[in-house]
Alpha/beta hydrolase (Hominibacterium faecale), 220 residues
Amino acid sequence: MYIKVNGVELFYEKEGSGPPLVLVHGNGEDHFIFDQCAKVLSGSFTVYRPDSRGHGKSSRVPKLHYQDMADDMALFIKELELSQPFFYGFSDGGIIGLLVASQHPDLLSRLMVSGANLNPKGLKAPIYWFFRTLFLFKKDPAMEMMLTEPHIGKGDLERISIPVWVTAGQRDMIRESHTREIAEQIADSRLMLLSGQSHGSYVVHSTRLAQIIKEAMEEN
């Protein structure tokens, strides 16, 4: 299905029944990374899986910015009249989720982010320099965005008033200190560092994420 918001068309899948749950993928990915997870969650939730602008089947754009993506997702929720959905964001999707929760305090009921960062320095140095070198050859707008954005400050996080789960793998590409900083600056947050997991091993084409989300929902 397609919906027009903020000057672009976003493709999304919808499945299941129950409270609304929005799953947003990371940089260079699309909604297919949640195929296995959605099969499990659709038994308990109405699952929405949009492709971010410039990704998957959604509109291509010459430049990508996290703020535009956050505006897209806020309007996506409003246009579909989703009543305070649970928002899950992986990597770039987590950045989008933090921006939405900070800027639209009444829009979401809960937020979970995995492997998100507040600025490019949140990336471990070898990862940052790998992508910076790769960008010299590929000139990919998604990669450029990752190397220059986001710029989320303490004040932004302090404006988030809903429950937030901050997750990361212990072998994540995001610095552990950075992940802890995110959790510490959000008033109602829970930190989950997953033993033996990498950036996306428990998320991409995995059912483990479904169990983590269900446990978070049951907690509240």
About this structure: DSSP finds eight helices and eight strands in the chain.
